[in-house]
TrEMBL record:
This is ubiquitinyl hydrolase 1. One of its GO terms (cellular component) is nucleus. It comes from Astatotilapia calliptera (Eastern happy). InterPro entries: Papain-like_cys_pep_sf (IPR038765), Peptidase_C19_UCH (IPR001394), Ub_carboxyl-term_hydrolase (IPR050185), USP (IPR028889), USP39 (IPR033809). The lineage of its organism: Eukaryota, Metazoa, Chordata, Craniata, Vertebrata. Residues 1-21 are annotated as: Disordered.
Length: 460
């Protein structure tokens, strides 16, 4: 009899462990179910009415957006009120069309005020190099308007097993969060976007390791273009906004160790004659003059300054530059044939040698508005291009050492005409005169419209 009672107690303990319920069985004590203390509503769940095989549609509005199931009655309902706009923000065409015309401040749920689009991004560990690029592109109106409306890219077909379209989806979600006027807080975490970047780039760009903003921007633009179905001949929103064209004149040089007679003989052959080719570009790389090696009388390095138009002379069609490869040397010159609506400048500050990465601290002096690029076009292009004047809308800055520095960005808010500086979660307004004193690394310029020449974005 005693052994039978012990077997029953063991069976009770086994059943309780299988159900995940901590039970205490003893002489004169009842079985205690601790689930009710953890969640007092678990006993109200009616499993007999739950059927998840039906289509997930709201029983009231017949919508499939933000649908949840009631575990008591088994019906489906749609999320309501402000939570739905934070979980999945949506924008109408009228709202998107008026984004650049309003400068209204919105109040978040935590009480802070913010401008939609001028929102800080969380630096998880060392992803500020990606944050500034994402913030810059979120303030390019054609790119922003395209991704704010999910219908623009939802129907794009991709081959089975392709993961690159995840980049498009996550970038669209991030764009809608940045421009959401009903956010709960005045900053956004790009965690899902960066996870997609790590996956799609095969860990070339990571959250925990500092990267180069230009390298990330180059990969990101080409990855988005391909994921949106774009090719060399088929355009996408990326090429429509940023792609321009240039002519490249290239001439092969003889090896410098050859005797003069042999050099002259080689220069007469067809191989060493100047060749011309047409090429497209998404951004222009501007080369800085070499930084000084010697210190001044106060034992401090002199920080040189150079005007923007001096480094733009690379594309005037007459300035030649030598490019060296492992085996051959070439002399090249460039001239633009078509300017895009939005022009990206990448100022080459970092050079790599066999030992380390060196940063050029030269300050580039540039105007904020009315930069005319007509003189860098061919004669045929000058006759066809109507507007060649550009205004600055975004300026990415790198501060500090090459491998240990930090990134920040200056962004123009089109609705107010004011400039803002964003560094991770910090957002502050800034005078336009202070922008030109920074070590600019990436710049995005917007071409003026025909009747936009009188606009002043100086913020004064």
């Amino acid at each position: 009899m005693v052994s039978l009672k012990r077997e029953r107690e063991v069976d009770l303990d086994d059943d309780d462990n299988e159900d995940g319920v901590a039970a205490k069985v003893g002489r004169g004590h009842a079985v205690e179910d601790r689930r009710s203390r953890h969640c007092p509503y678990l006993d109200t769940i009616n499993r007999s009415v739950l059927d998840f095989d039906f289509e997930k549609l709201c029983s009231i509005s017949l919508s499939h957006i933000n649908v949840y199931a009631c575990l008591i009655c088994g019906k489906y309902f749609q999320g309501r009120e402000d939570i739905t706009y934070v979980l999945k923000p949506t924008f109408t065409k009228q709202h998107i069309a008026g984004l650049d015309k309003q400068g209204k401040l919105y109040r978040a749920y935590d009480g802070t005020t913010y401008l939609p689009g001028i929102v800080g991004l969380n630096n998880i560990k060392a992803n500020d190099y990606a944050n500034v690029v994402l913030q810059a592109f979120s303030n390019v109106p054609p790119l922003r308007n395209y991704f704010l409306e999910e219908e623009n890219y939802r129907g794009i077909r991709r081959p089975p097993g392709d993961i690159m379209f995840l980049l498009v989806q996550r970038f669209g979600e991030l764009m809608r969060k940045l421009w959401n006027p009903r956010n709960f807080k005045a900053h956004v975490s790009p965690h899902e976007m960066l996870q997609a970047v790590v996956l799609c780039s095969k860990k070339n760009f990571q959250i925990t390791k500092q990267g180069d903003a230009v390298d990330f921007m180059t990969w990101f633009l080409n990855a988005l273009h391909g994921a949106l179905g774009g090719t060399k001949k088929k355009p996408s929103i990326i090429t429509k906004a940023f792609q321009g064209y240039m002519r490249i004149f290239s001439k092969k040089l003889p090896h410098p160790d050859l005797p003069p007679e042999e050099k002259e003989a080689l220069l007469t052959t067809d191989e060493y004659q100047e060749q011309m080719s047409e090429s497209s570009f998404l951004f222009l790389t501007l080369d800085l003059p070499t930084a000084p090696l010697y210190k001044d009388e106060k034992e401090q390095l002199i920080i040189p300054q150079v005007p923007l138009f001096n480094i733009l002379a690379k594309f005037n069609g007459s300035t030649e530059k030598e490019y060296k490869t492992y085996k051959e040397n070439f002399l090249k010159r460039f001239q633009l044939t078509k300017l895009p609506p939005y022009l990206i400048f990448c100022i080459k500050r970092f050079t790599k040698n066999n030992f380390f990465v060196e940063k050029n601290p030269t300050i580039v002096n540039f105007p904020i508005t009315n930069v005319d690029l007509r003189e860098y076009l061919t004669e045929e292009a000058q006759a066809t291009e109507k507007n060649t004047t550009y205004d600055l809308i975004a300026n990415v800055v790198h501060d500090g050492k090459p491998t240990e520095g930090a990134y920040r960005i200056h962004v123009l808010h089109h609705g107010t005409g004011k400039w803002y500086e964003m560094q991770d979660l910090q957002v502050t307004d800034i005078l336009p005169q202070m922008i030109t004193l920074s070590e600019a690394y990436i710049q995005i310029w917007k071409r003026q419209e025909s009747n936009d020449g009188r606009n002043n974005h100086m913020g004064i």
